[in-house]
Amino acid sequence: MHARYVLSFPLALVVKGSAARTAVAVIGGSVGGVAAGFLWSAQGAYFAASARLYAQTSHGVTPEQATASFAARFAALFLGSEVILKVLPLGLAAIETALHIGPKNASAVSVVELLPPPPPPPSPPHSLLSVTDITIAILYSVCALVSAFGMGSIIDLVRFEADLLSSSMSNGSVSVAVEDEAAIKPPQAQADGPSTSAAPPPRPRLTSRRLAAAVLLWCKSPAVLLLAPIQATFGVCAALLSYEIAGKVVKHKFLHDNAIAASLLSALVALIAAGLQYPFKLVSSRVGKPPLMITGLGAFVSLAALILALDEEALQRNLPLVACYVLQGIGRACYEGTNKALYADFFPDDAEAAFSNIVLSNGAVSAVAYFVFPNLCKADCGREQMASAALGFSVLAIVCYGAAEAVHRCDARQRSLN
Length: 418
Known about the structure:
mainly alpha; Growth Hormone, Chain: A; 18 helices; 77% helix; 0% strand
């Protein structure tokens, strides 16, 4: 399903007519939203299980260190790929322009050049695709198909954990106290007698309770609601940067090259977020995740405050403009890496439901922001209203995160006493 969403982008380049392109965009966006709900929820459960198994099979690695390491690696690969895919179209367009427009030799002036220029040839129809569009469509389609086929190579962690337990027991290295050998055998193995290989564990079934797991987690672990403003903050700040900075400031500063400038600055956000993953992993392994979370949320606060304090003319200066994208990059580094590891630490037994709440919080608030902000851009005080909303969400996220940490540590102390 996610591959079909990616394929909608090159398809939009091929279809003709605004109505057809709108239909492709709406259908592709709808498919992408459904796919993201499944993909990120499953990714969260798989991420938490992988980190837990890694911590169990590695000496001297705590679960918190494992989640920090895995989150940093995932975010670096994810954001690095985003940088490449954002810069690639610009590079292809530059190459195409260079091949079609070469420098003139100023010293060789012929009589033909002194004559009145002939009328320009008729421009090609708008429906024709450029070499860059065709190349991008092919590359993105290949990426979508490769990612779809790559899903088949993912290791089944349920079976892997069962095999690992069976191997540990056969080698006598398991450190779990078992009173009865039948307690660790699957029911089929108990009925049929001893077996040399462990039976595959039962596959989880899709039930109404599993579908409502994200909402049920609100009652089971209220801390997930305290973490929701973090996800909302990222969505609001991304919309603020898109409409106010890229849509107005960058457009007015770079009149003729605003699309290229906006693309490069957007790639700068992903580049900074990817580059900070390794330093964040080192800091997390030594002092924990709270300082990194405060740093990332503080970057969102600074971004909103900077846009609120300066007018559009001041934001067009190089230093404030680049600072906006750098601050968004720092905040996104925290959101894509440390934030995901935090959820795996807080909800190790409910990772799927917890990561579903990330998608739910971020998706709902982002959708509202991307529908409301365009209307605010037309108002005289629209910039102040958008920046104030982002600042409010950012401050609320810091307060709620502190409360979530306190609740989590209190629950951990109670579990240790019991």
